[in-house]
Fold this protein.
Amino acid sequence: MNDDLRTLVSYIIYCYSHNHRPNQFIIYQLSEMNHDEKHQKPKTPTITLRKFTLSDVDAFMSWAADPRVTRFQRRDPYSDPADALAYITTHILPHPWYRAICIDNTPVGSISVKPAPGEDRHRASIGYRLAYDYWGKGIATEALKLTIKAAFEELDHLERLEAIADVDNPASQRVLEKAGFKEEGILRKYVRLKGETRDMVMFSFLLSDAV
């Protein structure tokens, strides 16, 4: 029971205990305040991006060990934190642009941007993963928007970000569209995933596109 509702109940009890008729306007105002509070949309948590550290291994396991998260990834879920620690050490820390998606500085996912080599350095691929408990809250979309801005500011010569999503992963496709990515088409038999060759949907975001 919130403070406004307590006040309303206390007022009604007081009135009837003293043989007073409750003021209908006061009851209406207090009940409206309680109604507004009940129907307020939950606030979207503040999302930040930062570099990983080795101490993030436990948080990393919250999504890296979850088969629901790794379903559309090449690798299988981790079962041993030591393997996750090795991955952070050998892959994430040396990576040119790999960030933790954080809420209150605690990682709940990861997002990476990998520039193409040589003459193709004007484009880069982007990938992201989010712990299952944080799906459907707009966090991945916000993280993508932050990454788009940072990537174009920090990576020289970058003109194009591209991302692929499995044809059977409409949730990831929607996230990319909400972040401003444009669907370009289906790449047939494009990725070998857990022993099966899969079709992928290609998305892109250009430097000239508005975030």
Q: What stands out?
A: The chain has seven helices and seven strands.
